[in-house]
């Protein structure tokens, strides 16, 4: 078996047998999906450019069930693909071959919420938008927001260390996550689900799982610190020649409006900004944000999308876009740059009517070399998954890659968790 566009050989894992299916049925009765139509949605990624051929999807409800599944798969040498909302953009969320898909879709319970501290403890399969609604009704916000909020799971967010639209305001998940619970490849439950603000008892093990993309363990529960819901939100949408969306959030509307007004006067006065609009009411705020949040979806309507997600020094952020516009010829259609300016994160997207190997050859390794030349990162926030693992060496030294491999071997000696993903391609 080889993958169509990226040649890769299936590792010698076992193949799921009738007996395995019967065992799964005993562990998660009535939640073993083998219907090909139902499996299709979990075998294909959001961008619809990666397709696995898994024959079974399991839907545990509890940590104990996840533990039993992994213990079983470990014993049988069956490969496992953890899956949340399947909104990942680097091909990490779908199987490459016939890996067992372990979905967190039914692990969607809030465990506790502390109404004074804002600490939310929940299962990994909670959908981000639903969590947002839950904490907002209680006067708090989730410190993370992204366009995929309607589908992505909080466990998937941690597994990818998603950045998103609020990182500048509230910081990365590496700071706001207080604890987590994960199940290791052999079924061991690692309960680090504390809600303490301070805990220096040795290594901060939760950080290993944040951003590990399902290769070191399955995250089953999360403890996250939610900040108070801001009393006043202002959104400014400014133009020319770039579009910039600025959101301020504070506690006193008049004070915030005065500060933003001062900034806008200055920006308009200096000629930096030529036009724009302001919003404070919820409906207009949402509408302006939708312009930004739906770029991904809009691009996917333009044909095949070559997606790059790089960190660059701010003063060079857009140069890669102009450079590629000058270099690329058809079949490239559009070269588009957007992202998270405040985070130094550029989303470089190139579209074409259909996948073209020569165009890929024009883009890679050029984009990666360009990024490395600026000491940037070849994956700012989307992760490595299946697509970017050949590019890791552009942003990490060999010693770091070797240590990553050693950690993987320590935690998952048989390599059953999300094989073919995140770690560098082995020679
Ligand atoms: P999946 O796609 O299901 O999985 C992603 C990875 O995590 C896979 O490797 C999977 O194996 C692993 N995984 C999932 N759940 C678990 C678990 N419980 N335990 C262990 N491993 C697990 N990303 C950003 O960073 N910022 C953005 O602004 C952003 N915006 C997006 C907008 C759109 C429209 C779309 C489609 C995607 C966007 N993304 C963004 C990418 C994606 O939404 C994030 O990576 C998200 O965090 C993935 O969550 P998920 O539940 O869908 O995970
Ligand atoms: C975004 O910022 O919109 C997301 O990361 C998705 C994308 O890069 O298209
Ligand atoms: Zn983004």
UniProtKB/TrEMBL annotation:
Its main location: mitochondrion. The keyword GTP-binding does not apply. Its EC number is 1.1.99.39. Residues 50-229 form the FAD-binding PCMH-type domain. InterPro entries: FAD-bd_oxidored_4_C, FAD-bd_PCMH, FAD-bd_PCMH-like_sf, FAD-bd_PCMH_sub1, FAD-bd_PCMH_sub2, FAD-linked_Oxase-like_C, FAD-oxidored/transferase_4, Oxid_FAD_bind_N. It is found in: Mitochondrion. Its cofactor is FAD. It comes from the Eukaryota. The keyword Membrane does not apply. It comes from Phyllostomus discolor. Keywords: FAD, Flavoprotein, Metal-binding, Mitochondrion, Oxidoreductase, Transit peptide, Zinc. One of its GO terms (biological process) is malate metabolic process. It catalyses: (R)-malate + A = oxaloacetate + AH2. GO terms for cellular component: mitochondrion. Belongs to the FAD-binding oxidoreductase/transferase type 4 family. One of its GO terms (molecular function) is (R)-2-hydroxyglutarate dehydrogenase activity. Catalyzes the oxidation of D-2-hydroxyglutarate (D-2-HG) to alpha-ketoglutarate. Also catalyzes the oxidation of other D-2-hydroxyacids, such as D-malate (D-MAL) and D-lactate (D-LAC). Exhibits high activities towards D-2-HG and D-MAL but a very weak activity towards D-LAC. This is D-2-hydroxyglutarate dehydrogenase, mitochondrial.
